[in-house]
Structure formats: structure tokens, C-alpha cells
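Recall the central idea of this unit: under ordinary conditions, the amino acid sequence of a chain determines the structure it adopts. In this exercise we apply that idea directly, starting from the sequence alone.
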Amino acid sequence: MGEPPSPTPAATAEPSPVDGPVVVGADEQDVVAVDVARWVELARAVLVDERRTGELTLTFVDRDEIAALNAEHLGQDGPTDVLSFPLDDDEPQAGVPVLLGDVVVCPAVAAEQAPSHAGTVDDELALLLVHGVLHVLGHDHAEPDETSVMRTRELALLERHHWHAPAPAGFRQDQEG
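Accordingly, the structure predicted from this sequence is:
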């Protein structure tokens, strides 16, 4: 994967309000068609809803790249669906952009697990993206109470910014069996 794209105004960031969040997206895989601009906008909408400013990088990678990142950073073998790398957790300083972190999604893994998880590839990618952004912002699901809070927030954000309606029948946040 190398270095993620620089989240500067000259990069591929979506326009955002002054002092609003900046999200830079890149598609570094060719297995599943990805509308980067659409997913960048969803990530930005989540950050706005969560009242967070700063810079976030969203990168779509292939199975080999996410497996390498999974091994390097989590000590786990094989590919996974999404990884989050929070960066700055300090208080913002005047004139210094807050680097929120990186979200890395593997569309190939998303496509494989969609039928037993979110239902469709589109919904799976949306869920993984929102899940990853919430991790960057400090949410976790290591304990049952944390899981409940995170899933409730995921669903609310998906309903507001992805479906613009209640979740469709068959949508699941946790995988089958």
C-alpha cells in the first residue's frame, strides 16, 4: 500500500466547509468496482455527525495488501475486511491539522462476506466504512456495553447517510454462525 495519499486541499479530498473534516480516498485494488467519491462523502458525513474535524484517509486495497497490514499491525494471518489506524488523539492546536487516522477496506473480502453479513456488497461496504471510521474516533467492541453503543451508532449513521431510511429487511451487523 505504501504511504496513503496526502490529505491536503490539492489532493482528491471532497470539498468541505472551513474547519470541517477532510477525507481523502484512494482505490488501490481492481477486484470490486468502488465509487471512491461516494464512500469519501459517507466518511465525511459520519465525521460531521460525530462533530469531528481533521483529516482522514480512506483506502480500498486487495486481499494481499490487507493481509500484510493485518499481520504487521495485529499479528493476525490472512485478509480481513477493514482495519482502522487512529492517529492524533491530542487536543487540536491552532493552525495544526488533526490527523484522525486511516481506514483501510478490502472490497474483495466485503463481497465474499456480504451474503452472511450486511446482505449486499453495497451495504457491506457502507457498514465496514462506518465501522472503521467509528474505530478511528475511539469506539470499540471489546466489551458487550461497548458493542451495544457502537452498533447503535453504526445503525443510526447508516440509516441517516447510506439508506436515508430505516435499515432494509435482512441487514445484519453481526455475521452468521
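Residues 3-17 have pLDDT under 50 and may be disordered.
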